[in-house]
Design goal:
Elements lengths: L8 E12 L2 E10 L2 E7 L2 E4 L6 H28 L6 E11 L5 E9 L2 E7 L4 E4 L6 H10 L7 H21 L19 H14 L5
Antiparallel strand pairs: 1-2, 1-5, 2-3, 3-4, 5-6, 6-7, 7-8
Helix pairs in contact: 1-4, 2-4
Length: about 210
């Protein structure tokens, strides 16, 4: 369906991780203004829309696969030390919206087994607990994520700048705004993985043991 000129342009990434008995399964997608732009199936990540040149996208693919491999190995290690006998599903949803007046809003939400777990407050680059029980798992994950620039300042920069640049370039192509496009676009596709390392530490060290 055609998008209303008054509606915000949106770039959204969703990434799921299913962990069971030490094994990890990944899947996810990204959409730009309602159109599928990226797809993640296991360790295969593809660019459906040509948002990045082929050489830049090849590097991005390698970065994502390397990160997912690191996460998988961490889960295997934690599982040997502290076995978890039930399945856990972690979902990261992040992105940004660009409104017709030029203002933007970015977001990052994390759920664990279908329940709100953490969210990232973009303006001041802080993680906030959403876990209803407020237990040690969420508290530990929040503390770990706040330790590193990659999961605070770098994530804030991605959501406020790179993500919004994508939408600004899209709006120019659609004739919704005037201005100069940032070419080439640096997509910086992370599909939620930038936070997964910290999540793994929090969830798998705390679950079944004390933090």
């Amino acid at each position: 369906c055609p998008v209303s000129p008054a509606a915000p342009l949106t770039f959204t990434m969703q990434q799921w991780t299913r962990v069971s008995k030490g094994s990890s399964i990944f899947w996810g997608n990204a959409s730009l203004d309602g159109r599928l732009s990226h797809l993640l199936e296991g360790f295969n990540v593809t660019q459906v829309l040509p948002l990045e040149p082929s050489d830049a996208w090849a590097r991005r693919q390698k970065e994502v696969v390397t990160y997912l491999n690191t996460f998988r190995q961490l889960v295997q290690l934690f599982s040997k030390e502290r076995p978890v006998n039930y399945t856990q599903i972690l979902c990261c949803r992040l992105g940004c919206r660009l409104f017709p007046n030029g203002t933007a809003h970015s977001f990052y939400e994390v759920t664990l087994n279908g329940t709100a777990f953490l969210s990232f407050h973009v303006p001041n680059a802080t993680w906030q607990r959403r876990w209803p029980r407020g237990d040690a798992v969420a508290a530990y994950a929040e503390g770990e994520l706040m330790k590193y620039s990659k999961t605070t300042q770098d994530l804030q920069l991605f959501l406020n700048t790179t993500c919004v640049d994508i939408l600004q370039a899209q709006s120019i192509r659609m004739g919704l705004q005037s201005g100069r496009s940032h070419v080439p676009l640096v997509l910086g596709l992370i599909l939620g993985t930038v936070a997964l390392l910290g999540m793994a530490v929090g969830i798998f060290l705390c679950t079944g043991g004390s933090c």
